[in-house]
């Protein structure tokens, strides 16, 4: 038998309990994560096809189901429902279990729900490719797909609430507020929006408002809080440094929860809406400076003095990159909501640049970081190759910076040119084309990064490269502890049997 | 129609009211007392403050 590391009894019990909690989420969390990585690859293919079509419209031009009007929403829906949401659920389940100090409830049910969600994305994508999309952005999937998302969303909410009410930790950590809010919001948003748009309750302008109330909040109150929660856990956890100001973190959460919900109409600035509705959106967007500044200060100050760890920790690299991009994308977003700004940028590639700085630079990078932390702990295995991780990091970070900054720059001038009646429209097209080609190039880099990541994930899951000890796993903890965890489990099992 | 078109705003308002209610509930439960300890609640004797917990595979520590 291996010898147990030195230390007081209490710390041994804590270690054992942490390992058992991680173990409990192995199957469901691996399933949500692995599915999300699969969809990330599919989404990248759809992205590259859409991207090439924008500078070479004839590319695959004679295949009906790959026309831009279908493949673009397919990209959007795959990366939103398939990649982002599934990664977010995996993260949420693991994190909430850890923070509540309880084992993940209903592992079989939660795994089943992942499969239901996957079927929903499959069916929806096929429907959109076949031309049955609704053309309401983010709600393109036909109405019959709704149960495939609504039911799992309710299941995840139930699991989340169950963990919270049975929690054994005394304190509610700031991340837990974010996670609870996100799971409460998603079913409300989705069911209300689908109900209103598909059953004809709202039409015309009201439909557009409903559409963007959903689209905006799906970003701001579903995926954003989960990524912020993850960063609030992982940055301190990896560096071993508590959050700089816990007061600020709580102020940040509650102000986000109160203000974000009001900002949806900033997507419709300049549209035929009553002016006050847009003003509400603009004011909501300005108020967002508060939560964003609190997160920025907190994460930066927590990192002070430990920046050197970025060299040695893959999780930290991705997570800190994502946090910085949260500040960047959100500052940009608040300014972008202003009417004077929208006049220039609304119909341009600027919006697309912002979208990728946000959903990719911020959200996706934090999810990558989280997966680098979580997978080894739930599979009890080590990542197979540091080189693959580095390819992933550099491909995606350089890729998204080139994409985001390039298109925001070009989009701004595209807007200025489009607003000038003296400039023929075709000149604006000629101006933007090289930047669109640049996007295909950076998108290729990002896709290579995703392939490297998928290989790593495949290897860690298939145990292609099985190592139980290693730096990520902490030689001092995991392998040495395994026997004690098993022993403890046997003891409890025996006690249970004796009782019955 | 006007009433229905206000539905979304009503849902938004409901969300805000729920949030404020949750905040009041949390205050009452004393969630915001002892914040310094709160920040340290993710560490324990097994993974204490000051210990880095993630490294590249194969890296020497
Ligand atoms: C304070 C924070 C933010 C504000 C005020 C904000 C504001 C905006 C505005 C005004 C637009 C509309 C642009 C247009 O249509 O002309 C927009 C679009 C978008 N934003 Fe943000 N943003 C913020 C943060 C974020 C974050 C953190 C993310 C990523 C999770 C994000 C993702 C997106 C996406 C994906 C779109 C494109 C939506 C579409 O047209 O499909 N934003 N944002
Ligand atoms: C592999 C790299 C990627 C490339 C080359 C790419 C390319 C594209 C293209 C060409 C569009 C359509 C732009 C337009 O209609 O003008 C688009 C839209 C979008 N993509 Fe990506 N994408 C990539 C990865 C991602 C990822 C991973 C996410 C999410 C996590 C994402 C989220 C979005 C969103 C939300 C939109 C809609 C933006 C809007 O309407 O404002 N993309 N992307």
Oligomer category: heterodimer
Query: How confident is the prediction overall: mean pLDDT of chain A?
Result: 91
CATH class of chain A: Mainly Alpha
C-alpha geometry of chain A: globular
**CATH architecture descriptor of chain A:** Up-down Bundle
Strand tally of chain B = 0
Task: List each distinct ligand once.
Answer: protoporphyrin IX containing FE
CATH superfamily of chain A: Cytochrome c oxidase-like, subunit I domain
Radius of gyration of chain A: 23 Å
Largest sheet of chain A: none
Percent of sequence in beta strands of chain B: under 5%
Q: Catalogue the unreliable spans of chain A.
A: none
Strand portion of chain A, in percent? under 5%
As for the CATH topology of chain A, it is Cytochrome C Oxidase, Chain A
Characterise the protein shown here:
The complex is a heterodimer of chains A (500) and B (61). Chain A has helices at 9-24, 26-55, 68-100, 107-129, 146-165, 174-198, 204-239, 246-259, 275-287, 289-303, 314-336, 339-345, 349-379, 386-418, 425-462, 478-499. Chain A has 500 residues and is mostly helical. Chain A has one domain (13-466): Cytochrome c oxidase-like, subunit I domain (Cytochrome C Oxidase, Chain A, Up-down Bundle). The mean pLDDT of chain A is 91. The longest helix of chain B is centred in the N-terminal third of the chain and has 22 residues, at 7-28. Classes of the chains: A mainly alpha (500), B mainly alpha (61). Residues 43-44, 47-48, 50-51, 54, 72, 75-76, 79, 83-84, 351-352, 355-356, 359-360, 364, 439, 443, 446-447 of chain A line the site of one protoporphyrin IX containing FE (HEM).
